[in-house]
Amino acid sequence: MQGGFHEKGHPMIRKVFCCLGLAAFILLGASFRAQPASAQTQNRAQAAADSRTVSGKVLSIAGDHKSFVMEVTDGNAKQNMQFSIDPNTRVTGRVSTGSMANVEYQSKDGQNLAVTISPQSSQ
């Protein structure tokens, strides 16, 4: 009976180590995936601190739906502001040409990037 115990036990030990390795890999993967979410939360908090909000009438929307122009009132003067839209822009409700809307935006690289677009509630 030379090595009889080891020959039968060896496949079992190999399975145990394989399962432990797989479990460690899954746990490490889960912890790495959780990290970017916290970084995104920090980025959103920073973005919210740097953003501004305006209200006005939507004058035009580009055919590719990646930008629009809105007439806003600044004191007594009206001015047109152009906003860019990216995949992270959140649109709540239906906004179309001629409708009144609120826009939360950030100025980035000389452009106004819309963060949130929502229709103005009629009162």
What does this structure look like?
This protein is of the alpha+beta class and about 120 residues long. The chain has one helix and six strands, in the order αββββββ. It has one helix at about 5-50, and strands at about 50-60, 65-75, 75-85, 90, 100-110, 110-120. A six-stranded mixed sheet has the order 3-2-1-5-6-4. The longest helix is centred in the first third of the chain and has 47 residues, at about 5-50.
Please summarize what this structure is.
By secondary structure, the chain is an alpha+beta fold. It is 38% helix and 37% strand.
Write the CATH homologous superfamily of the largest domain: Copper binding periplasmic protein CusF
Strand order across the largest sheet:
3-2-1-5-6-4
Total strands: 6
The biggest sheet amounts to: 6 strands, mixed
Q: Which percent range fits the helix content?
A: 25-40%
Q: Determine the strand fraction and express it as a percent band.
A: 35-45%
Distance between the termini: 92 Å
Number of helices: 1
Query: How many individual domains?
Result: 2
What do we call the CATH topology of the largest domain? OB fold (Dihydrolipoamide Acetyltransferase, E2P)
What is the gyration radius calculated from CA atoms?
28 Å
What's the order of the H and E elements? HEEEEEE
Mean pLDDT over all positions: 78
CATH class of the largest domain: Mainly Beta
CATH architecture of the largest domain: Beta Barrel
Low-confidence stretches: none
Please state the structural category: alpha+beta
Identify the overall geometry: rod-shaped
Strand-helix topology:
Blueprint: H1 4-50, E1 52-61, E2 67-74, E3 77-84, E4 90-91, E5 100-108, E6 111-119
Parallel strand pairs: 4-6
Antiparallel strand pairs: 1-2, 1-5, 2-3, 5-6
